[in-house]
Amino acid sequence: MNPVLLGGENRSGTTLLSLVLNSHPDLCVGPELDFVEPPNLGTHVLEAIELVRSRDPRAVGPGTSSGDPYWYDSAHFVKQCERFGIGYGELADTIRERLGHGGGNLVTLPQRCELIRALCEARARAQGATMWGIKLQRKIKDVDEFARIWPRARFIHIVRDGRDVITSHLNTVPDWGHKNIEIAARDWVEIITFARHRAPDDRYLEVRYEDLVGSPETATRRMCDFLGIAWSANMIRHHELEHPLHRNPWSHPASEQTKARLTQGSVGRFRHELGHARTTQYESIAGDLLTDCGYERSAVAPPR
């Protein structure tokens, strides 16, 4: 099976995009799987599975937090797999199967990717899909590494107006989101620029969040053409369908929002919530790329 890998800055609509794609009968697309962060995807995750299963406070706390930071990354990965519909037993069995191949403790990136492939192909078969996908999230800027490991993968990068992105960070996820305008602007520029420069031209597609929610049929047809599959009307009624994320959200910040139909309600929220000074500061750093992506500047500020 050929994967479709999604990416974008946090709070850009990546979860919404994954559910829209997962609504297509030929696609099995899940939320993010942070599979690079745990010390290994072998014994460490096997231990974390048992801790999460038993609700051990070392691995389970409010939301996706863990009482012991040592277990956070592996326990978080287990919870993310559950969001995708991958149960504890299935995850443990697949890890043991990969360990049985003698490839070490699943530490290297190729070993980690092989486990992800095995897990996602099993999910796709169970769902009756012919393609699988997950979110790489901000790792889309390292698209060249994943393109080498998965030479037939296709990458969809969702881009959202960076001013709305930082507004969402500040007002929706203040606990873990960006708090510094300059850092947020530079990160937004870096992710888009790196992805564009590193991606294989024929396997990379950018989709604007504003187009997805404003002209959903046009945007989803464009993605289907890119993936080489027929368009399905299910994609514009994702909110009417069941998704594993909504059964096991583990406090995912976009879980409730993605149960609703596609709307433009969050487009341009920065105009009312970010303020003139912070908007001007953001545009002084990211203004050129905002213009290149089709976003109109609201403040006159010299590029930095």
SSE inventory with pairings:
Blueprint: E1 3-7, H1 14-22, E2 27-32, H2 43-53, H3 72-83, H4 88-99, H5 109-127, E3 131-137, H6 143-149, E4 154-159, H7 162-171, H8 181-198, E5 204-208, H9 209-214, H10 216-227, H11 244-247, H12 270-273, H13 276-292
Parallel strand pairs: 1-3, 1-4, 2-3, 4-5
Helix pairs in contact: 2-3, 2-4, 4-5, 8-13
What would you say this structure looks like, in words?
This is Sulfotransferase. This protein is of the alpha/beta class and 304 residues long. The protein has a single domain (3-292), classed as Rossmann fold, CATH 3.40.50. The protein has helices at 14-22, 43-53, 72-83, 88-99, 109-127, 143-149, 162-171, 181-198, 209-214, 216-227, 244-247, 270-273, 276-292; strands at 3-7, 27-32, 131-137, 154-159, 204-208. A five-stranded parallel sheet has the order 2-3-1-4-5, sandwiched between helices. α4 packs across α5 and α8 packs parallel to α13 (276-292). The longest helix has 19 residues, at 109-127.
